Amino acid sequence: MKELPLKIFYIFSSPILTAFLLSYAAAFIFIATLASSQMGIAQMQAQFIESWAAVFHFEAAGLDIFIPLIGGKTIGVLALANIAAAALRFTRRNIEGFGFAMVHAALALLIVSGFLQGKWRMEGAMEIQKGEPATAVYKMEGGKKFLLATLPFSVELKNFERQNYKNSDIAKGYSSLVEFRYAGKKIEKLISMNEPASFGAWTFYQSSYARGGETSILMAVKNPAGLLPTVSIALILIGMAFTYAVKIFKKSDEKVRNNS
Amino acid sequence: MKKYAIILSFLACALIACFGFFFGKRGALLSPAEESALSRLPVMKNGRLMPLSSASADILRFLCGKTSFKINGKNASAAEWLAYANAHEADAESLPFFKTDNRELQNLLGIKGRYYSCREIENNFEKVWNAAVAEERSPFNKACRIAIEKVAVFENAARALALSEGNKTPRETYDEWQECVNEAAREIEKAKEQNRKPDSQKVSKTFGMLKSFQEKKKVEEGQKSSNILAIQTSEGWQTPLDTVLDRSPDEGELNVFSLYADLVEKISKNQNGEISDELDGLEKTLNPPFKIRFENFANRLDIFYRGAIMYAAAALLLLGAAAKRLREPLFAAAAVFIICAFISQTLGIAARMYIQMRPPVTNMYSSVIFAGWAAVGISLFLMFKRGKKIYAIAAAPIGFLSLVVAINLPYSGDTMGRMIAVLNSNFWLTAHIVPMMLGYCGVFLAGFAAASRLFFNALKLGKVSAESNAEFAKTVYAILCFALVFSFAGTMLGGVWANLSWGRFWGWDPKENGALMVVLWSAFAIHLYAVKYIGARGLMALACLASVVAAWAWFGVNMLGIGLHSYGFTSGGWKYLVGFAAIQTAAAALALVPCRKK
Q1: Looking at CA atoms only, how far is residue B296 from chain A in angstroms?
Q2: Any idea where the domains of chain B sit in the sequence?
Q3: pLDDT tens column, B568-595
Q4: Does the reported pTM lie above 0.80?
Q5: How many A×B Cβ pairs under 8 Å?
Q6: Which residues of A84-122 are buried (b: 16+ CB within 10 A; e: fewer)?
Q7: For A145-204, what is each residue's pLDDT tens digit?
Q8: ipTM at complex level
Q9: Listed residue (B568, B598, B511, B178) closest to B365, CA to CA
Q10: Span B425-598: which CATH code?
């Protein structure tokens, strides 16, 4: 019985599992993409990506065909276990191993941050107007509006502007000047395309407008783990650069040694 | 022998670069000097100042997918075509320069082939219109909608230089309108004084003309982004119709207006040889800046087209190199062709960047050119560094395909136009797309190289030594590693960009999924090879399949037509995609042919 944990460790760290997960994930995402063209991206995400198991349904030659699949969550958990176990088993304890370990640890962090996004992230729409402080964030589902959250502060539109390219009707950008009010304090901020503004735990993005600019539509996002993916990617890229740099230096070292 | 081959191929490249530049596709209407003078006049289109040659080529490309057209059996440049459409609108209407690939629409119009004329649409207008406004969204309905749009774009183009009503010349039209307006104004004034109703006979003609102008204005308003604004005023740019409707046009505006009017009138009266005064006047008044002249020159040179010819020549030479006795000189010649083509491509990309003042990749069209350029660059580097000729074999078709695809992308509209607001961020655009393209082209390079290697392996029926295969697989592995790093970086930097600007790192959009598939599949191949679960042939097979995944990610997902990234929507490409997948899969299957044992 002593060997059982070791056996489990070998199973989880096996390169076969890595190969299976990578190729299966590629195929799974392909199927999920096809599914999203049938049911839309939001639906696909709920049924395939954010689930433990999924069923892909399609018709061919008059037959209903159902394909059972392992869902995105399962893949994520297995990948996490695989990366952790394999890193423990295969990392060489030298300078080359350092880059390898860094890339894989950050990859694990990326997967974890994916899970955290699913858990903590909130995204909804806000319609703000002049002279009417708003606090409600809505979520649209199936053409209906649902109240997602009520902000602890209020947002009011001060001014909306739309700039076009000269002599054309292509939008160069929109911007909203908004006022945040919290506990008697007033703060004005400008929100434009690609330049969001944050207040409290929420960040507001210019999304659209209605009634010729009388109403500005913002996207409101609350995401405590928002920076985590960026951090993990920075670590992965640094790790990759490190790994290749070490390789190149080693090669040129060999050349020098061979020459002398 | 090798020396002569190199010198000869340099001469051939020089010839390709210059041929047709001095006597190219123009001359149906104007002499070369007049055509050049007309082509470089500055106009405003879709918010960008450009030479008339670019603006008219954009419109012609939208209408028929080409940038030159045969009028009365003679080649006309895009600017000549525009002048012809303005001067001889009725004749132009019966020329078949509208194109559709839709069979149903072809049958409805009763045409053979893909080209039809404006008149053929007018004869069947009701049927086409009904199909266009129907709620159904079949390809046929879409084709009808586009046909209607094309008619509107053509009508606007046909009065972009000068406005004429019926059989009247532009000048007569303008004078008559002014007279009518003055007369109507006098009549209304008089009626006011005498406290009576204005005589309807005296004002009815004015109202008739006004109504006709307003209808034309409506057509213009409907196609804002494809209108050519040729008349410069003190405030900006406008069409001749705007000037006609202008209550108090300024002097410069009227000057440009009447110069264009005279120009068109002379062409319509077939006095083509006598328009140099008007062209001189226009050039002096509008004074095209250097950038406009440069763009016109680049249009004339059409350097991507010349590059494509050189790549094709190189590919042919390489095919010839299969004969062992000619191998050395032909390889040398092909290398010269590839280098010259690569230089042309580089110059072309640089010219685009200068004209647009943007990073090299801004849309589907430029992404293909850029990725091909990068792939050829890497191949050339590897070829000279490692002395392996196989990279030349991969470089020629990649370079050629990238340019041919780019030249023929259907109606995608390389307008160098402004991009939508969301993409208006040069830094992130570059940071996201350039690594992305480098990654994809690396995958393609690995795929093509592996496929050609497996193919030659199979031809020699297993007589290739396992060592040389292993050596080759190492290179494929290195390219795949390169591709993995760049496609991962590109994909993830896209996520960072999205997180910064839309608050959402990843949206499971089809294009994002495709990019992720490329990353996963490359990682799959690399991991299997690194832990020695597969050997040289296995890696090459997986590399072939990786290029199929990349083709799906790049082109396939756009055919689904959903999501954020559907900017490069192309339809009807399915068969090419399936064909490509079939070829690469077949090449992968060739990995089953064994090598020679030691």
Answers
A1: 21
A2: 1-25+302-418, 31-286, 425-598
A3: 444 556 778 888 999 999 999 988 877 6
A4: no
A5: 142
A6: ebbbeeeeeeeeeebbbbbbbbbbbbbbbbbebbeeebe
A7: 888 888 888 999 988 887 766 556 666 677 889 999 888 888 888 888 767 888 888 889
A8: 0.84
A9: B568
A10: 1.20.120
